[in-house]
Predict the 3D structure of the following.
Amino acid sequence: MADTSLMDKLVSLCKRRGFVFQSSEIYGGLGSVWDYGPLGVELKKNVKDRWWNAMVHARDDIEGLDAAILMHPKVWEASGHVAGFTDPLVDCRQCKNRFRADDPKIKGTPGQPDAQCPVCGTRGSLTEPRMFNLMFKTFMGPVEDSAAVVYLRPETAQGIYVNYLNVLQSSRQRIPFGIAQIGKAFRNEITPGNFIFRTREFEQMEMQFFVQPGTDQEWFGRWREWRMAWHHSLGLKPARLQWHQHAGSELAHYARAAYDIQYQFPFGWQEIEGIHNRGDFDLSRHQEYSGKKLEYFDQANNQRYLPYIVETSAGADRVALTLLADAYREEQVEGETRVVLGFHPGIAPIKAGVFPLVKKDGMPELATALYHDLRKQLTCFYDDSGAIGRRYRRMDEAGTPYGVTVDGETTTNRTVTIRHRDSMQQERVEVSRVAEYLKQQINAMP
Ligand code: GAP
């Protein structure tokens, strides 16, 4: 059953602690657009860095790319988005609200007298469904006529397809090889929601792997395995991850086969990444619409062909939400509720809090010096206000895995305590070894 209270708690914690804010909040907010605060930006950056490292830096067969958001309008004709990236939409003539035609809250058939608006309850006020394109349109140059229409990209993938020969030739790669990209995408979703799960502006982490036709299913299998392993490596609870295979009508127009990696959110099992065997759909369409040959020449076998593509497509915001939902827990400690974000240390926005036990006896000076040394190597936070227990709790709620406390012993034997967020156990470590100790712990992440 959906646990809406957990989502409410997460949204409130995210605002209170500076993970995520509503966009343009002082003007009443902008529907399903969110801003990342100081902790959220670090969390999402850690997600993107880990993805980039796994996909680009750790492999010889994948190159990076950063294509522009605005592209030639014909790209979206070739990709099928102008004709087919649509949802069926109905309007209520009475209250002017808009719904997807298949919204389960609608009673009756839209367009018929029996249909009832789920917001104002009026019968017969819902229009016939009409197809609504999800791409945001804008105009290039000073004249707002149809010749100048451009779209905000609804996926990053197309920037990779149209650059595939440029990357291939400039990097001297050979098939099989891939191109990876992280970037913003925009969709005018009709039913956005669930916080940062479905938004109108979001970030994708997409990789397109170009293979010889006939080897595509084999690569598809490998990529499925590697991508699931990556999500496990973030420290997510394995029982909350599963595969969902697209069958029949669920398959997108471009896909020969598709699987989603789903996570069990408080609002149910939902997709966080899609892995698709796209065949030669994309390159053959771009070849046709651009009039440019996009074939690959395999010198070794003296063969020309259009490569098939295996795509892995994840949302950085969805992965961030997954990490937040997976990490959130409440515990009873000494009669009080302790809220913890149990992030894996490698993902945590702040790695260590640094605290002088009290603001006297040279402790602040020692703690400040240690903090300045540590922050050159790790993200740290210095806090000297309030009781030490309160300071630990504040860091627990931010997901900080380690607390480093300078106390009375530090001046005599040059050791500090290191408190572990999850076990709340403390151990003494020499001041000179703190950075090394913390880095070892963090790097223990697979
Ligand atoms: N190029 C293929 C593609 O874009 P998709 O299944 O539409 O496929 C891939 O999107 C991923 O992008 C999803 O698994 C999700 O993580 C993310 N995503 C898609 N729409 C989103 C939205 N409105 N808000 C946040 N993330 C979204």
